[in-house]
Amino acid sequence: MKIGIGHAHGKIILIGEHSVVYSQPAIALPFKGVQVSVKVTPSEDMTIDCIYHQGLLEEAPGQLDNIKAVTLEVFKRLNKQQNFNIHIESTIPQERGMGSSAAVANATIAAIYDYYDEVLDKQTQFELAQVAEAISHGDPSGLDALITVSDKPLYFVKGQEIAELDIETKGYLIIGDTGEKGQTKLAVQALGQRKLENPQLVDELIYGLGRLAHSVKELLKGNDLYTIGSIMNKSQQYLSQMGISNSSLNNLITISNQSGSLGSKLTGGGWGGCMLALSDDLILAQQIEEALLKNNARQTWVLAF
Length: 305
Ligand code: MEV
What we know:
Blueprint: E1 4-15, E2 26-42, E3 47-49, E4 54-56, H1 65-78, E5 84-90, H2 100-115, H3 122-137, H4 143-147, E6 154-156, E7 163-164, E8 172-177, H5 184-197, H6 199-219, H7 225-241, H8 247-258, E9 264-267, E10 274-279, H9 282-294, E11 299-304
Parallel strand pairs: 3-5
Antiparallel strand pairs: 1-2, 2-5, 2-6, 3-4, 6-7, 8-10, 8-11, 9-10
Helix pairs in contact: 1-2, 1-3, 2-3, 5-6, 6-7
The protein binds (R)-mevalonate.
Residues 17-18, 20-21, 97, 137, 140-141, 143-144, 184, 188, 268-269 line the site of (R)-mevalonate.
């Protein structure tokens, strides 16, 4: 039987989440330690097989509205219509700021194109993934859609040409999962509301984060992890002032800083999800992981860059 296969991976936003929605720069890294693969096979009805639902796609819960929409959009683009079983396997934790929704959308798009032996160019894939992301996130910057299929780190500014980033610095990012589902869509909406109520303060924080992201881009050409760490701490302060952090994230951030991290911050949408810590040494990175796990982190990973 003919099948179509698509893959994508996780992502880590090093700096610039939320401010990126307001056209400030952000830096994101592909994280291949977590992956999704999607297999499509012809079927009598349109069905899906994943952790949220096994059965008819039209009966799937709201979390899969993005996949329903993107599937229709892909058929429209390809001028095809056919029933598939969409089988999704993923090690990307859902709703933790690691790009799960964008990765699943990207892998589904790629799988259907693969089934029909159609060439999928980057722009088409991005436009299609954004259809799904608009449903998952409301007002997506586009960063997640791009980085979950990128092999290289990206310096991203919404609406501008995408710049792949060559990182000269050597270091380790420790990723700690609070175990709480992040709430990107709600956090993005809440920040929008805050910006209406207090535009001066929120704009200052947004531009401040943009300047920090720009500085990190320059620093990644050298080897000054100490300054990068202190910028991560500063960006966490700004994100907290924006109301994006929460007590579980703050707890893990405090623990990692007490355990020798050079700097720590939340990553992704916030209000739960994951945090990042920085180390210049693998043994220290492992010690930070242990400390996080002892203090309620659900899972940890180390990403060398
Ligand atoms: C979510 O991974 C990142 C946010 O900046 C939203 C977006 O970029 O669309 C919070």
